[in-house]
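ARCHIVE CARD
Drawer: 12
Card no.: 0347
Subject: one protein chain, sequence and derived structure
Cross-reference: see card 0346
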Amino acid sequence: MPEETSFPTHHAVDHEAMKTTYHLRLCGDDEQLLRSLACECIERIDELERKLSRYHDGGDVSRINHMQAGETLHISEEAHECLLQAMEASIHTCGLFNPTLGTMIEHRKTEQDGAMPDLAGQLSIHPDTATVTCVEPGRVIDLGGIGKGFTLDQLALYLQEWDIDGALLSAGASTHLAIGDHSWPIDLAGVNDSLRVDLNNEALSSSGTTIQGSHIVSADTNRDLSDDAPTRIWARSESAAFSDAWSTALMLMTPDEINLAPSEDRKLSAVFVERDGVLKSISAS
């Protein structure tokens, strides 16, 4: 990230949630309003964490993961919307982003012995009502690859109802969402190279082998992280949820597929790839 002095004048607040630090930078003339909105955003982040985290007992995702065959569960509107966006992202990425790989992710993260477990079970998400039906138990929802971006999108929707100039909303250093009148400089730092991009009413998310590689798995065992996978990759989109999902999926793509991705999908406007210490920009045509 650039120095704070490079940013527009803003009110800043940090908050620990979802195993990261949220950085909220809000711009406007009414300092009291900005402080109040920041507090509301923090409460909203905590509320969404309870609903979306698979590790929060009693939350929507936790309850889904413990469903029995034939059971139908009513969930919150937010969890339902996040699941629908996750399934849409799965379609856009040809299944490389998959929100139902919790068992495989846990196997990889905890370095369990033996082969990767097979994908099992089936869930049905109702498109119009906030319900999920368990057709066959075994699927484990994990929204780690989209939940933080979805949370930023929800904060943006809330803030846009108020008279503020804009904001930069960040989930750690991995996902940023800029809204409003200002452009915000974001530095992409590689091993031997760097690139500054300006965000304006769009999002940028990153994934990499050094930080999140152990979390990236594929339902297709032939699509696991390869030896020539990028060191790090950034995805740019109008939606933080989709930039989040795309940054994960792109790590599993071949170089040719990465080059074509922005021009083939309306949810992805640009990709930045670091390979062998060199940063490369790929934009939609």
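Annotation on reverse: The radius of gyration is 19 Å. Helices lie at 31-52, 60-65, 77-92, 102-109, 147-159, 240-250, 255-264.
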